[in-house]
Each structure stands twice: as structure tokens, then as C-alpha cells.
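User: Hi! Is it possible to get a structure for several chains at once, not just one? Here's what I have:
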Amino acid sequence: MKKTISISLNYQIFVLEEDAFEFLSLYLNKLKEYFSKTEEGDEVIRDIEERISEIFDSKLNDLKRVITLQDVEEMIKILGNVEEITGEKKYDNNQNESDELKNNSRKRLYRNPDEMMIAGVCGGLAEYTGISVNTWRIIFIVFLFFGQLSIIIYLILWLTIPEAKTTAQKIEMKGEKINLSNIQKTVKEEYQKVKNNLNKKSGFKTVFNEFTEVIMKVLKIVVEVFIKLFGLLCLITGISLTVLTIITFLGSLISKINGTPYILSNLWLPDILNLLTNNVNSWIISVALFVFLVIPVIVLIVWGLIIVFNIKIKRIFSFSALSIWIISVICLVTFALNIAFSFAEKASLKKKYEIQNDSTKNVKFIFEDKVSGIENYNQKHIKFKLFDDQDFFVITKQSGEKYYHFVMSPDIHFFQTNDSISFVEVILFSRGGDYKEALENTKKINYNISIDSSVVRLSDFYIAESQKFRGQKVIINVYIPYGYSFTLNGDYSTNVNIPVENNIEGENNLRDKIILSTKSGFLIKYDLVDKF
Amino acid sequence: MDIINNKAQMRKGVLEYCILLILKSKDCYSGEILNNLKEAELLVVEGTLYPILNRLKNYGLLNYHWEESPQGPPRKYYSITDKGKEVLDELDKSWIELENSINKLKNK
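Assistant: Yes, the chains can be modeled jointly so their relative placement is included. Here is the combined structure:
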């Protein structure tokens, strides 16, 4: 069975078998090529075609309705081949007849498009040398292992050797004399090759392709497994975080409501933020922070679900989640900037207190475990340390109500002085949006120091809800004249600075010790007994 | 030396003369011209005819017209022109001259 192609010749329709068509096309094209150069060559072609149609007509009958290759060949015998009609020997390489012999044995090196895996270099070499294509391929690949020269040589060959595109070039490549019969043969051969290639692929190429296919499949599977594992990880992380948060949150909420002394109930964020800013803001920021933390966790869970279970999520959901998250970020950033501005300026107030001497020339400093201004501090409160030892975050309960206070200890520094009287400087320090605000904040610091003859009582101070935390500090500078001494009693924190020269056992043990102010600095008065 | 080629060249040379001779008696279409030439054993392949017909027409020695044919598409019928007739007379003379010359040489 063959494919057929319909043509029109001299206004008649003829049905030709595929190879007959190819052959006829070739013949007519050669003729057209020649006659197009002559005056009114088209008419000659038309006359020729007319004659061809007459000849074809005579070949057809009721039993035979298509023109075969044989018919075309016979037609050409009658009409004459291209050489005979045009009177030109067009298809030798040289005009000179004596070179015909040379032509017979001369092959030209072309790249072979019919045997092409990459560029047809090996195919061309095969035709030229007679060594088979696959051998050449193996040669190139083997030399690849000896260095990159193989690749370079291949590239040079690729660039310099032309490809045998036309039929004439292909015949030159194979080294035969070019004339019409050769071209006929080559056309027929190419034809067969194309048909065969449709049915099977050339062996080497298939093996290579299959090999790469297998590797790609394996890679694909590995990648898919990794993606699934990642999805699972997302899912697990997301869910555990959520569970943790819920527990914390619920615990906090519950204990806040019924007032149980659950440590985490102290972490009710809006109340904490209330010390920094006003009520409305603290709620907004709390919500914003919640959203900021929760949405990524939700995203993590959703990714996990998508990857592991192939669930689809509508665009609108992810879009709104993203927008809400961005809004929360904006809130948080704005808030942070706002707060930063409130801390821009600073102010301080200084007050001096003289300590009366007594004959002992000893000043007693008592650190009281109470907070200036808070009544019944010791009795009903929950206290824990948020930052380092010095700062307490205390919830004070008084008659059923709860107050949040940010309690701080003053920084105390001891100095020696040439004065004959010991005295204390209390410096209140605060920040604010501008100097006026800072000063106001400073004035609001409620720090009481009580001096009774030569006993000084010190305590902590707090920032209440009515104030806002603005980096308040209380600095107490104590000046002890030479020849005097002092003692520290009570529970004092580590932000008491005394440059003691002979502190053997560490600062913590300064309690209840007598410290002398001498010309050589502060010295602990050791009894002989103490040393052992 | 290619004998066959030589013969073909000689035939080709007189072909134009022959065509004019055929058309002198009557108008013919290409098929008829071919038959005449084949009967006279002058033609090997038909394809050589067409370029020559075209050339003669371009020189103004021939003309053609279309006529309906019983078996299908219309055909070109060639006719010799006056100029063609003149050229034909000239060629007749040349042919006789040539024949004489060669006979002279052969009889030597």
C-alpha cells in the first residue's frame, strides 16, 4: 500500500503514488530551474507538462487509475531526461569532461544529517572514511575520558564541516558521480529511510534516550518523596505550635478570670502593654501580635495539608490571610516607632539629703523589702522576676482588685567625699517625647527615702498604671567622708556599687559588714575571727 | 570523441529546419509535429522539441492559436509565419549548398 498525491497537469487531475510524485517533482524542478533563465521559459514548461499529461493519460485505464514510479520513468524515457532536453551537462561538478574520472573517486566530507545524534559529525566521518558511525561515536566518548580535547575537536569539526543539505551534496558525501540517475537513486533511498524511521528508531539513540528517561524518573520520585516529607514536617510543626499556643492562652485566660496564682496568668499581654501605652493601643497591639504569630503557623499547617493530602485552597483565603498579616505588621511597626518617639528626650531631677552624724560616725543603710507608695505590699502580692534580679513585675492585690506595677530598684553608688558630712543624692531620671514630657514623667516618680538620725531606709519604686513606663530610673549617690563607716542591712540587690578594695569573698557578702571609708578607699573591716 | 553526441548535435542542428518544413504544408499541434519527426527518425527524445518551438516563436518564425480538441483541453496549433517562410527558403538553399559541398568531398 502506498500514499498518493494528487496533482494537476495541464488542467487535468492525476493521482500519483508518493515515490512517483517525488520523482516527477525532481524532474520538473530541474527543468524549471533551467528554463526559468530563458525567455518565456514558462511556456516551454507548460508545453512539456501538456505532453506529460498526454503520456500519463495513455498509461491510465479502468483497472489502473494511479500513476506509478514506473510510469514516470517511462515518461522520462520518451520525453528525455534533463540533460537531453536542456542540452547541458549540468550535473557534473566541473565543466571539464576530463575531470569526470576524478569525480568518480572523490568524496567530500560533509556532516551527515541522516545519521545525526548531535550534529552529524560522526555520521559524516563515517561516510567519508568508511568506518561505521557508532565506532566514531565510541571513539569520541572514549577520548572524552582522557580530557576535554575530545569536546573541543568535536566542536571544531561541527563548526567547520558543512552539512549535506541538498541531494547533490549528499551524493558528493557518498562519493558518487552526480547525475540524474544518481539523484533518482538518492531520492528513492532517502524516501525509504524516512519511512523506516517512522517505524523504528536507530539503536544507539534509543538506548541513550531510554537511559536518560530512567534517570529522570528516578530523580522525579526522589524529589516527590522529599516534598511529601517537607509537607509532613510543616504539618507537625504547625499543629504542635498551635496546640502549645492554645494551652498557654487558655491557661492565661482562665487564671486571669478566676484569679488563681498561675504564673502564666501574669502574661496577659494587654495588661502588660498597658504600662507602656494606653488601653486601646494595648488591645490593638495585642491582637496584632497574636495575628502576626498565628498566621504563619496557620500557613505552615495549610502547606502541610496541601502537600500531604493534596487539598486545594481558594485564592481568596490566602490573599486575605496575607493582607491581614501585613496589616498586623504595619500595626506593630507603627507602634514600635510611636513608642520610640516617646523615649526620645530625657530629663532628670536631683535632690540632696544630708545625713546627721552621730558619735559612731557610722551610717546604717537598710534596704526594705517594700515598694514606695504601695500599701500592704508584703502581704498580698505575687512577684516574679522578669528581667534580671533588679526588676520585678508585681501584681498587687488589694481588697480584691489587681494592680500591675513595674517595680524597679534604684542604682546605688557609694563614693568617698572630702566633706565632713555624709549625704545622699537622689537623682530621678525619665524619658519622654520631648523635654517637657520627660520632666513631667520624672516628677511623677514616687521615690521616698527616709533618713532618721544616721539610719537611711531605702526601698524600691514602681511605675503604676497611671504612669507609663518611660525608662525611669532612680540613681542614688551616697557620699561617705573619710574616717566614717557604713553598714548595709536588709535584702539589697546587685545594683549597689561599692568599690571595695579588699573584698575577698564577693560582693554578696557585704551585708552586715562594716565598711570603712579610708584614704586608701573603701575597706571591709575584718575581725580576725572572720578570716577563718 | 563522443560519436553519439555528434550525431545528436547534427540532428539538433537541422531540427529547426525540419519543424519549419513540417509546418509549411499544414498547421500542426505539438503531437503531430512529434509524430512526423519520429516517422522521419529524426527525434530521439521529445523534450528537445519544446524549447525549439519556443525559440522559433520568439524569433517570429512561428505562431500559434488555440483550438478545441475532442479529447479534453484545447491544444496549441502552430503555424508558420511569412517571416518563417522566408527563413525556410533560405534554409532550403543552405541545405542544398551543404549537400553539394559534402558530396564534392565524398566523391573525391
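The longest helix of chain A spans residues 203-258. The CA atoms of residues 419 and 481 of chain A lie 6 Å apart.

User: Great, thank you!
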